[in-house]
Amino acid sequence: MNPIVFTDAAVSHINSMLDQQAAGIGFRLSIKKTGCSGYAYVPAIIEKVVSDKDVHFEVQDQLQVYVDPEALPFLQDLLVDYVVEEGHGLKQKRLVFINPKEKGRCGCGESFTIE
Fold this sequence. Notes:
15% of the residues lie in helices and 50% in strands.
């Protein structure tokens, strides 16, 4: 079982991003200390393996996923989704990270804390 779950919508979105970046080989996820709450997700389309220590696995539609091994304890059991939100005449499309380990988020939603 993979440490992170991706919805079909997230995989489709990431694959379309990879299609736009000819040299892209996969999707990498990490976290960084930032913001007022502690951590922020760092998703990226990568053109080469960042670290040979990255945890690598494949999800649906052969999407290659790489995870920073130091971030893995924070990301275990994470659900990655892609949503389209409409409001005030605007559409916002974005990846959403649903993490059962999150204890709270800052007011702007940029950063989060972990249990």
